[in-house]
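Mods, move this if it's the wrong board.
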Amino acid sequence: NRLTHSLEVSCVGRSLGDSISNRLLAKHPDLAESHVSEIGAIVSAACLAHDLGNPPFGHSGEKAISTYFSEGKGLELKSQLSPREWEDLTHFEGNANAFRLLTHQFLGRRKGGFVMTYSTLASIVKYPFPSILAGKKSKFGFFTTEEQDYLKIANELGIKRLSAEGEAIRYARHPLVFLVEAADDICYQMMDIEDAYKLKLLTPRETKELYLLFLDEKKKKRVEDVFNLVADENEQIAYLRATIIGILIKECTQVFIENEADILEGNFEDALIKRISPPLCEAYKQCSQVAVHKIYRSRDVLDIELAGFHVISTLLELMIDAVQSPDKAYSQLLINRVSGQYDIESPTLYGKIQAVLDYISGMTDVYALDLYRKIKGNSLPAV
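Not the wrong board. Structure tokens:
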């Protein structure tokens, strides 16, 4: 789930950050009195936060929110919103939502949101530009309401601006974004392969063969020796997974150090994982292909995404109708379920919609499904 994934990414992120820190201090002794030694802690914190903005059902939930406005009943609201507000909604993005969650002052809460350091906040913004530049991939870094917050962070940290004056703002990534992304990429593939084995989506043999793609003959001999000592198949696969993660951390560290100057200048755009040595890169691609066909497109996963799409769309429709017509009896029942921290009485339509999105995107899959069933009358609390 999202929690275990975030914890895994945080652990890998800390290791990656510490590795980078040690290499940078060796390369630049004059940085010994700087905060470079804290990179591991910053990346670890950013990794814990990187998926906080994801709605229920992950990417399927993002798509459900976006298409509610671009194709569903929400389309009728377009004329009542500004072009930039409309772009925010039709390109709803978990990364931008995480930045909002961490920085926005919700009702009754303290100013500054989670009050994290600028470096930590900048480290989760993978796409440092607004929704009007999102394109077909619907990727962007901050909603209209949080743009000034990002500008303040970018100016304070000296992040390079790539767009000209008068154009929609686009910044280079903060250097530590590459480390958060790399930690996520490593865990996303390597942990998912092991999870697929546990869920019997992959056989033990298939799982081992995928991991062994990353190893040269010397390392394979070491694995063989370990397997002779440890017969338990779960332990064998866990050992392989840990070994590969260690290798990928080392590889991504090397890529970062080799491209340090371009990264600092904003001239480096690839994910670190795409620049690892060719044999390892090919092994990673094969894992990705298998994951797509045997994990992410498995029937069970698709069925959950289909159900999730409908759940999110239904909750959105009912809640947005409720905040637009709060005096109706049914609207009051729905609104009374919403936590007081969400500004559902905002003076603007966009503010009301954002409050609904804050409420729904903060749900877990199980909570969203439970609320949907209760609203539909398919489930009642115990009396």
